[in-house]
Specification:
The complex is a heterodimer of chains A (about 350) and B (about 325). Chain A is mainly α and about 350 residues long. Chain A is built from 13 helices and 2 strands; from the N terminus they run H-H-H-H-H-E-H-H-H-H-H-E-H-H-H. Classes of the chains: A mainly alpha (about 350), B alpha/beta (about 325).
């Protein structure tokens, strides 16, 4: 009895260690990227005779801010991907949420209304995706490919083809979500980053300690088995997409805030790939059943750090794209190798 | 059974097709207000969402209203990066046999064969806003002298910087003729000033103001000790850079010249966070593009190159009527 309890404890310890490692992989990747750029920046700065600027606290603040919009949206995408789905409409839904938010602010509604409407739009978009996938029995890739253009179109209709501008009508606490430096200084990083971290913690708890979280993993790992175990797959999926929509709505609020209050229905075009990339760099599996919160945020930060680093090093835009692609593939490859060994 | 369905399908298709061509033919030959032929002209901008194109649309509509025998069909891609989408739009209009096409090509090379295809089918093309690398198949090019606009920006920036200091140029995506000419005019002019140093020109941004802002912040941080002036070449980059300057607390301290205006940049000019705006005349551009096409269709000779003019707006001259008209050009208000 005692020995079997011990064995159980040991087994659990091993599992915890493995889990730590799998989540830490992408985080180590982020550290590696930061170290590489810091070294390169100090070498280059010495060569051209200027002060190195990469290895500073200001860079950490900026990279986290730059990553926060993608990061928050990626938390939603993480839930979807773990459940074995995908959401190609995330970028478009994010912009639609930003556009709806801007519409309410432009027309002078109180901030709470604009914010709620924007986030609500994200949830509704997610619910629509989830419901359509269940009702029409068509794979998420196709459904969300369709809703992607629907959401963009809806945004353009609402905005009458031009970005909706609400300059001067947005309270500071919303604009401060996306300032590169924290306001007030005591926050250390801008408030949007704190929102991202708080939501990340919530998702972490949800996935690890709740029945809902277990079901999400179960459906993603083996949908048929999950169904046989009595999990209501359709309802669960609708919940997952709606919840993901909440995060995408928050990301939409960030998009709205970052240019001083502008709702551009096209700003999110192509951003879904960045959002999916964050999850995948972070160890998420596109075949479902796997993914981590820390990894996902690290993935978003890796991309932001590469962009900031490349500009700091004065690397031409075309080369930046090559570097970004190579690092994404390398990060995922390393993660796979580590997992297999 | 299957054959019956197929036959019904083809029959329906044939009916629809004949119906279409019937109405098209009658549309093309119906007498206009003055009893002349009514022409359908497709006007294809680079994108449909920027304010600039809405003003071009207003100008094109003015020309059509003035001429009376012209019908404008306005259609463009909603993404200014998407040259494939724009090529398809051009080909659709070629297939529809419109009488003429006014086109603002997204790419100076990719549209040369597209324009050639149109010409082979007897459809004349006037390009506007941006030129083509080989203009031999076009009727005319109606555009701002973008090179000269870049020169204006460089001369002005050099003057307000007292002819010395570090300058950043943030470029637009490669392949767009108009913005490349602005960059070239700017760089070649700036090179004449010995004490002005170009500290960065390596970065390009696609049509994405948020990306422009992020890159702008990175550039300004890296060059904080050296940068004295900034030039950006088009609408999405302008507002991203202005936001970056504000975020880095450099707005008003670093001298900033933008090419093209929008409400945000105009406010910047009032607040003195933007020092100068190179302005085009989009209304005139749309107007002259359609007028030129109409003249060509009427068999009159037209100039191969038509400049629509460029001005520099500053805090000092922004209230002059001629500048004010360009700062807030009218926009198409239909649909």
């Amino acid at each position: 009895m005692g020995s079997s309890l011990n064995a159980g404890l040991v087994e659990r310890g091993f599992r915890a260690a493995r889990l730590m490692r799998s989540a830490l992989g992408p985080f180590l990747g982020l550290l590696l990227v930061v170290v590489l750029f810091s070294v390169a920046d100090s070498v280059r700065s010495r060569a051209v005779g200027k002060r190195p600027t990469f290895a500073t606290a200001a860079t950490a603040q900026k990279v986290l801010r730059d990553a926060s919009q993608t990061g928050v949206a990626a938390l939603g995408m993480l839930l979807i991907i773990i459940a074995g789905g995908i959401d190609l409409s995330a970028g478009a839904a994010m912009s639609l949420a930003a556009t709806v938010t801007a519409w309410f602010f432009r027309d002078g509604y109180p901030p709470a209304v604009g914010v709620t409407a924007g986030i609500g739009t994200g949830c509704l978009a997610g619910l629509l995706n989830g419901a359509l996938i269940g009702a029409l029995r068509i794979v998420p890739f196709i459904i969300t490919l369709g809703t992607m253009t629907v959401f963009t179109g809806a945004g353009l209709i609402l905005a009458q083809d031009t970005p909706i501008r609400a300059f001067g009508k947005v309270p500071d606490w919303i604009l401060n979500l996306q300032t590169p430096y924290p306001v007030p200084d005591g926050l250390l990083v801008s408030s949007g980053v704190w929102v991202m971290l708080a939501l990340a913690a919530a998702v972490g708890v949800l996935l690890k300690y709740t029945v809902f979280g277990r079901h999400v993993f179960a459906v993603g790992a083996n949908e048929a088995a999950a169904r046989l175990c009595g999990i209501g797959v359709h309802r669960l999926r609708a919940c997952v997409y709606t919840l993901a929509g909440f995060f995408i709505g928050v990301a939409g609020l960030f998009q709205f805030a970052i240019l001083s209050g502008e709702g551009d229905p096209k700003a999110g075009l192509g951003k879904e790939l960045e959002i999916i990339a964050a999850v995948v760099i972070g160890g998420g599996s596109l075949s479902g059943g796997r993914g981590s919160v820390l990894g996902t945020l690290s993935g978003a930060c890796i991309m932001a750090a590469i962009l900031h680093g490349c500009v700091t090093l004065d690397i031409k835009t075309a080369y930046q794209k090559v570097i970004l692609g190579v690092i994404i593939v390398a990060a995922v490859t390393l993660d796979q190798l580590r997992r297999r060994s | 059974m299957r054959i019956a369905v197929l036959a019904a399908f083809w029959l329906a298709a044939a009916l629809i097709a004949s119906g279409c061509s019937e109405s098209e033919r009658s549309g093309a030959t119906a007498p206009g207000a003055g009893g002349q032929k009514k022409f359908r002209i497709a006007v294809i901008p680079k994108g449909t969402t920027h304010d600039f194109w809405k003003s071009v649309h207003a100008g094109a509509q003015d020309a059509a209203a003035e001429l009376g025998n012209i019908e404008i069909v306005w259609n463009g891609p909603d993404n200014e990066k998407d040259k494939e989408a724009q090529i398809k739009i051009v080909d659709t209009f070629v297939g529809e046999r419109v009488d003429g096409i006014c086109l603002a090509p997204i790419d100076r090379d990719a549209f040369v064969p597209v324009v050639k295809r149109a010409k082979q089918r007897g459809i004349p093309v006037v390009v506007f806003d941006s030129g083509l690398s080989d203009p031999s198949d076009t009727v005319s090019c109606v555009a701002t002298d973008n090179y000269k606009g870049g020169v204006l920006a460089a001369e002005f920036l050099a003057r307000i910087l007292g002819q010395s200091g570090g300058v950043i140029l943030l470029r637009y995506q490669a392949g767009s003729e108009s913005t490349e000419q602005r960059e070239l005019g700017f760089l070649e002019t700036l090179a004449r000033y010995d004490r002005i140093k170009l500290v960065s020109e390596s970065q390009r941004v696609e049509s994405d103001p948020i990306q422009a802002m992020k890159i702008g912040e990175s550039l300004l941080r890296d060059q904080r000790e050296r940068v004295a002036g900034v030039f950006t070449v088009c609408e999405p980059i302008n507002k991203g850079m202005l936001q970056a300057l504000e975020n880095e607390k450099l707005a008003g301290k670093v001298r900033f010249v933008a090419f093209d205006s929008d409400p945000r940049i105009l406010q910047g000019l009032r607040d003195r966070t933007v020092d100068g705006i190179v302005l085009q005349d989009p209304v005139r551009m749309g107007y002259l593009a359609v007028k030129t096409m109409a003249a060509h269709l009427a068999g009159q000779p037209v100039e191969k190159l038509i400049s629509t003019g460029e001005e520099l707006a500053t805090f000092e001259n922004m209230h002059e009527p001629q500048i004010r008209e360009l700062l807030e050009p009218k926009q198409f208000q239909g649909k």
